[in-house]
Amino acid sequence: MHTHRGDIQTPAFMPVGTAATVKALYPEQVRQTGAEILLGNTYHLMLRPGAERIERLGGLHDFMDWQLPILTDSGGFQVMSLANLRKLDEKGVTFRSHIDGSSHELTPERSIDIQKKLDSDIIMQLDECIRLPAEKEEIERAMQLSLRWAERSKTAFNNAPGRALFGIVQGGDNNELRAISAAGLKEIGFDGYAIGGLAVGEPQIVMFKVLDEIIPHLPQDRPRYLMGVGKPDDLLGAVERGVDMFDCVHPTRAGRHGHAHTKFGVINLKNARHKDDPRPLDENSPNPNCRRFSRAYLNHLTKSEEILGAMILSEVNLAYYQELMSGMRLAIENGQFADFANKTREGWAKGDMAAL
Hints:
- The protein has helices at residues 27-32, 42-47, 51-56, 60-64, 76-81, 108-117, 136-157, 175-188, 204-214, 232-240, 250-256, 288-292, 295-303, 307-333, 337-350, and strands at residues 2-3, 6-7, 12-17, 38-41, 70-73, 84-88, 93-96, 103-106, 122-124, 164-169, 192-195, 224-226, 245-248, 259-262, 265-268.
- The chain is α/β, with parallel strands linked by helices.
- The strands form four sheets. An eight-stranded parallel beta barrel has the order 3-4-5-9-10-11-12-13, surrounded by five helices. Strands 6-7-8 form a three-stranded antiparallel sheet.
- Strand 14 and strand 15 form a beta hairpin.
- Helix 6 (108-117) crosses helix 7 and helix 13 (295-303) crosses helix 14 (307-333).
């Protein structure tokens, strides 16, 4: 993907900078992991510090000192999952802030306006995301409402120069409704197409089944973005099915809880077996922090709840995610994706004790 702030190689993973920061990392550290685009969150930023304030201060890129592309989500998911006393109707959603109880309204038009004020490079339509499992009637109601909001979002976007607008396919785990949603979005016309409403409680097998069904309905010449996903095996399986873009809080959240993602799978540094282990996480990793610190030291930091432990492991995890994406890109380019996927899964299955 090409933007005026830089190119984005796909498949791509976007670290999540919810409140204008990727937790526990400096912007340059995030960039050094290989990230070419970040995600910012409309809901959180509209509540604090406020979209208008960020606009006055030069936009989100200057505010957080990230000069590469930024994608902002619409805020719809957070309204549905975090906000108190929310009320949804055809116009939009009114809700009370989870921070101070203040009242707010989020409509398709307001969501687009906020994202423009943030100076986002890729803007998302407002949609209604419901949790699974749900009754078909409820899934269809939310899907149809999201389609109508998609049309209003496109009108409000008004072909803003230098920006892209993505539509969001809804329809839960119902293939028929997903196909209707995809057809409606294609008729409206978007720069990219996101797949929403997954990773909301359903098993991985259900998510993959939905992807198998919906990917053929999406344009071949536009990016496909699976929202809110996921763990490394989710990314690998989704790329196999044709997904181009991902975002998830998991790698940094896992780091803050003492979990390191490596080619050996997940290493839980809280486990007592690491407290006398002088080995690094991975002595052959391209990431210096994987080679630099012993497992014993990382166990100590994690058990002591030292901030440095969260910083190191968050960086390690984001670097591994970018290494995984880079490996997938190279394998695709060389026509060796199946072999890469098999070897990667074999490494995860062997576990870190295989390195002894």
